[in-house]
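During the second year of the project, the team shifted from modelling isolated chains to modelling whole assemblies. The rationale, set out in the original proposal, was that interfaces cannot be judged from single-chain predictions alone. As a representative example for this report, we include one of the complexes processed in the last quarter. Its constituent sequences, exactly as entered into the pipeline, are reproduced here:
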Amino acid sequence: MTGRATASRHDDEPLRIITARQGWRSIDLGEIWRARDLIWLFIKRDLTVRYKQTIFGLLWVVLQPLGLTVVYSIFFGYIARIPSEGVPYPVFVLGGTILWQSFSRGTSEAAVSLVAQQGIVAKIYFPRPIIPLTPVISTFVDCGAMLLLLVGLMLFYGMAPHATILLAPLFAMLAAALAYAIGLWLSALDAIYRDVRYALSFLIQFWYFATPVIYPLSIVPERFRFLFVLNPLTAPIEGFRWAVTGNTTPPDAITIVSSFMITTVLLLGGLVFFRRIERSVVDRI
Amino acid sequence: MSDVVIRVQNLSKRYRLGEIRTGRTLSEAIETAFRRRFLPNSLPPDLSRRAAAHGQELWALKDVSFEVKRGDVLGIIGRNGAGKSTMLKIMSRITEPTSGQVEIRGQIGSLLEVGTGFHPELTGRENVYLNGAILGMSRAEIDRQFDAIVDFSEVARFIDTPVKRYSSGMQTRLAFAVAAHLDAPILIVDEVLSVGDTAFQKKCLGKIDAMTKSGRTVVFVSHNMGAINELCNKAALMHHGRLLGFGSTSQMIDQYVQLLGQSSRGGEIAVDENAPFSFISVSAAKEGGAPSEMFDIADKVIITVTYRVRRRIDKLQVAAIFSRNMIETFYTIDTDGADEVGAADPGLYRAIYKIPGMFLKGGSYSVRLTAGTPEEKLQELDYSLPFEVEELSINTQQKGYRSGRPGLVISPGVWTTEKVGS
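Output from the structure prediction step:
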């Protein structure tokens, strides 16, 4: 819808044919790129609205993970004595929580986004795949602020950030891509079956404990490790923590490749599936 | 080079009635599938009704074909449910057709609603950018038009205030201002004209008029035949999803009026043979005409009621309650003109109530009848007679009695204005 043709000669005007699109046709990525102004404005809207009318405003971005870090450090670090691979437990747990929070919130918001935006969807056309994309981006923007908190905490413990911190955004992007992939699947399913929103919180909670956020992979018995290779979130969580602290165990190559491949398959499949459902979504929601 | 910018070919859109509902849950879907497969006769009432609906299809559009040439201003007319909105939604790519196709040559802008995506927490400025982008304007374009938009909306002072603090009129004005600056060579417009207060209305009309005269192609849906008549050079008449006619606006409006006339029916009323009083029939008609369901605001509306009296009733009164758009508008009793309420002997009676033209505003009316004496109610009809009053002969855009404006009836009062000083 953007990318206005300024054709003076009629022959140059774009010809669009609207017809019943059959089958599992994929998504026009160029169209999403041309809607980047709109994506940016949606993100800005999400960020503005999220912290308006709150006393602490943007502070909430860091207050929440800070609070969690304190609680986790007491229960898992101090009482349960979970090992933390040579860094103080608060640093360890915050290093995992940052990406986990962005991932879980991005996924949850993306999953209900299509239904939440139905008022707009029924009234105007724009490339629909950007609907689950914008909540993912806007929650991952918070990552940056939380990263500052982590660096602050590390300085407090007398640790300097490692040069590998430059790799951290790559792991964050991998997690964001995964959140978007799952958001595509779930938001399309949610438009048909509202079960999705009820199953979602359970899924997220289960996933939380299946991912090495509050514990290191090294305490997991060898024979169960392959399960973590299959969990596409293992690599970004461990990788992000390693990149920032430079001290904890990095994910091995197989875990990273596996995560990348699973995410890619989920993303491409999600785009196709979303496309498939999107055709009739206005007639359903 | 062809000068056809929109070509609609054999366009059809089917809705399965079972699908039009808010999200069912997975378990319901499984249960329905299971029962249908193994226990065909055991569906609970709710599900079996849905299953029945499952077989039902509704063709919102069926084999519609027409062409719109560059610079045409096409009005799509027809009753509610005729397929007008579905047509606009397909052209705007909001929903896909079931079969057939639309070819559109050139950038298209669609205004099915003003203020789509407005967020109450955002400021006027933020909403202008967001709404503009949703409508398909680029950032550069909004930057360029921003001052003009704010100027047009008349809310410049509050442009950095969240719109939740705006009055609804201010919100509408801002929303319309954005829409009015959407600069696409092909515009698809759904009845968004009827917004704002009188002065703003006039400004919008001017803007729309300028748009249509600037060589843009416009497809326009409205129930206001006066506006269609004034703005459009072509019209498409739709009825039950089919294209009934396509041609000059005045021809199509004539055909539409005829169509509405044909579908009228008098009220059939169940009569209790033992009651002292029973209504037999009630109908609405134009002066000297057959019963009708559709009137122009200039038409007289003549309500005819027949009833039978079987025993002498000392003080008989028949009353009618007129409602417009579900709101009770006025109440009238057949003895209003008499000094006292008289008696009725047994027999068949006909009562006629005449409403002058230019009194009922455009809208959906219904008439409910009751009969009784000052002491007791004899009969209250369940049936209420429906009829429509439409703004066919007059473009009410700038009139005080346009159907969207405050007030329930067209006032019989008369204005005279003279200059009494310098």
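Chain A touches chain B through 48 residues (CB under 8 Å). Residues 130-156 of chain A form the longest helix (27 residues).
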